[in-house]
Amino acid sequence: MKTLLTKLLAIGSIALLMLPSCKKDEKKVYATNVATSGLQASSTTLVLTKADLTKTAVTFNLTQADFGYSAAIKNVLQIDAPDDNFANPKEFNISGKVTTQAFTTLDFNNLVLALNLPTGVASPVQARIKSSISATVAPVYSNVVSLTVTPFALTAFVYVPGAYQGWNPAAADSLESATGNGVYTGVINFTGGDLNFKITSNRDWNHTNYGDAGGGTVSGSGGNLLAPAGGNIQINLDLNANTIVMTPVQWSIIGDATPGGWGGDTDMQFDNAHQMWVVTANLTAGGNIKFRLNHDWGTNLGGSDGTLSLNGANIPIAADGSYKITLDVNANTYTITKQ
């Protein structure tokens, strides 16, 4: 019996010693002798126009990168301005093993407008391909293709239905993106005690409806948004980053030509259709007016001949009467038209 027990213990010891040597070695794959992708464009001078919205503006041809072994490669077309050096490029995913990617005028115009390029002006743009196979292997980049692109303004709108106007998208005020780059702005006059609202991509509830996703962000499945206060609220909506910023804002006229004199503001209302502030008021001859923000002299505008500047000169009124007064704070211009 003792001899049998000794033999069993010996066999067990040998088995334990053999366990580490039986562990399966994991194979690790490393990318070696990597060949980068190549990129060519069908044209490098692009003048984009609304008349050609559905036509092909440019076609990119690429050769696949080679990481030294068979692997599924993800290719991304990166577009950026030269002075940014691809620090924050706009990206377009190229699916599968596609080696030719065409863009319509509309799609490529939207892509370059996202770079905040001026419209109607030729601007330099760079393109390259970023190729990757996994998060653990460094991506490789193609040659850089330089283009000159003249984009056009493509005004876009979203709409702001809410309790202030009966939750009716068809009649709601809008936010405007002057260049269609996904960044929208406008001023909404929230009246009444209920300050809930949403933002719709169309004048109905049947498309994308943006709501509160928390932390100053929006999503297509979010709850109601809430204005920070009643009155005029400037809304800045960035659908590239899905962020929203809401700021109380009120422009007014003031001066000894206005009903309130230098001691009381006459408030203006924001015209979303024309993106400017408007008021009709009785003005007095021999007096002056200025424009100011939020009933405070910290930001006031004055000037002459329809052009304004910060802390500019008083604007004189030559004759008594009822006047329609407009203010465009983006262009720093105004009009005073007798009715």
TrEMBL record:
Signal peptide limits: 1-23
Keyword Signal: yes
UniProt xrefs under InterPro entries: SusE
Ranges of residues in domain SusE outer membrane protein: 24-130
CDD domains with a match to the protein in the record: CBM_SusE-F_like, CBM_SusE-F_like_u1
Alphabetical keyword list: Signal
Gene3D superfamilies given in the database record: 2.60.40.3620
Keyword presence, Signal: yes
UniProt name for this protein: SusF/SusE family outer membrane protein
Organism: Mucilaginibacter ginsenosidivorans
Lineage, highest ranks first: Bacteria, Pseudomonadati, Bacteroidota, Sphingobacteriia, Sphingobacteriales
